[in-house]
Amino acid sequence: MDNFETTETKKKIHIGISDIFVFVILAIILGFLIYLKAVDRELFLFGYVWYPNYIGFFSEVLMFAWLLLAWIGAPKSKKRRNVIIVCAVMLVLEAGLIVWSVYDHTKNTADTERITLSDGSEIILHERVTYSKFGEKKFEYTYMDVYQINGITSKKLGRIDETYFSNKCLSQDKYTYEYDEAGKKLTVICEYGTYGDSVVRLKEEYDTGFLSKEFTLE
After folding, report:
1. Strand bridging mode 48-50 / 122-134
2. What are 75's strand-pairing partners?
3. Which strands, in side-by-side order, build the sheet including 109-116?
4. pTM value?
5. Rounded to whole angstroms, how far apart are CA atoms 176 and 190?
6. Is 73 helix (H, G, I), strand (E, B) or coil?
7. For residue 218, what are the contacts with CB-CB under 8 A and spacing of at least 6?
8. Residues 158-193 pLDDT 10s
9. CA proximity to 45, closest of 35, 55, 37
10. 66-82 pLDDT, tens per residue?
11. In this structure, are strands 153-161 and 109-116 parallel, antiparallel, or unpaired?
12. Helix/strand/coil (H, E, C) string of 85-111?
């Protein structure tokens, strides 16, 4: 009898500790998401910028996995069986969202380059192509996002809209940059090739073949 009670007590303690562990992990993730939102930053790991929705999807996967394991170990009932089914379905859906989001992000990435500036500051240039369709016509939009890296976080400094460029400046290596250490000003100069179409044009005096944009680092 004593052994049975001891085993049950250990089981309860084990479950309690595992619950606390999951709650702590979820709280850390939630706190980190709030921090990133508050300072207007994104996670930067393994050379990639991870958008907040990726971390959110991961925390939801963890939560549903924990619920699934907790309810599987409980006494059987119709209610518990329904909860297990719902948790299993949500777990698969959330995991699928992570895979799809990463695939979509990777598929539409034209190029990424990490640059160390003269004062040691690090930036990421990320060129991305997205598509939309109106009726039978398909439109392509190209953007170059500029991030400043600080440890495991990144801050978006701005974006260069390359939609009307005939060049993809980053992937075709049609760009240069200048950096002013004193003012912490980064200027990215793109050789755009031809600009626009019959609707969108530059005035002749501005159609030099190059466009530049300035970004201020922290």
Report:
1. unpaired
2. none
3. 48-50, 42-45, 153-161, 137-150, 122-134, 109-116
4. 0.68
5. 7
6. coil
7. 148, 150, 155, 184
8. 999 999 999 999 999 999 999 999 999 999 999 999
9. 55
10. 666 666 655 666 766 77
11. unpaired
12. HHHHHHHHHHHHHHHHHHHHHHHCEEE
